[in-house]
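Hi Prof. W.,

I finally got the DUF1772-domain-containing protein prediction working! I wasn't sure whether to trim anything, so I left the full sequence exactly as given:
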Amino acid sequence: MNSVPISATRPSTGIRVAQVVGLTASAYLAGALGGFSAVAGPALLKAPAPLLAKQWLTVFDNGKVTAPPLSVLCSAIFGYLAYREPTASSNFALYTAAAIVVPSMIPYTIFFMGGVNSKLQEKASSLANASLTDTEVESGVAQDETVHQLVDKWLTLNFTRSLLPLVGTLAAGWAIADKFEVLGLGAVLKTGADRMG
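And this is what came out:
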């Protein structure tokens, strides 16, 4: 009789909740950051400079209160899973990598995006009273210092930043998937002619 064992180890409910919340939060973070750069950003670039600066500032202000705490939550969850589920050294390494790489978006933001963020905040402040539809407001500004060029650069840096929680999600997902093992505890799938009885 040809059979394939299909049972798998089952983590505790607490571990399962941590796995689901950690994966969901890190995947959401990666998708929100990357999606903004890939989908919303190009549409925003069609706006006049004063409107674009205002829109960018709204995104920036919303992001700085949601993304860092979410990345720290992911790090804590993945660190917890590394501590609670060290069944294999590879799983421990994967969870630990996820716990480190997801919140590394915070120093990335500070060191790689800080200059562009500061310039865009200044632009948003200086253009706050300009007409939102004024297309000539930056006519004398150097090409690489316009709101459009700065936002375009920010979108590229932001997309790169989104790869950090994506890598963390993939590492943790691999650790979770690797945890399941075929044990052969009696449950079987019949194959071939034997499946008919």
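The radius of gyration is 24 Å. Does that look reasonable to you?

Thanks,
D.
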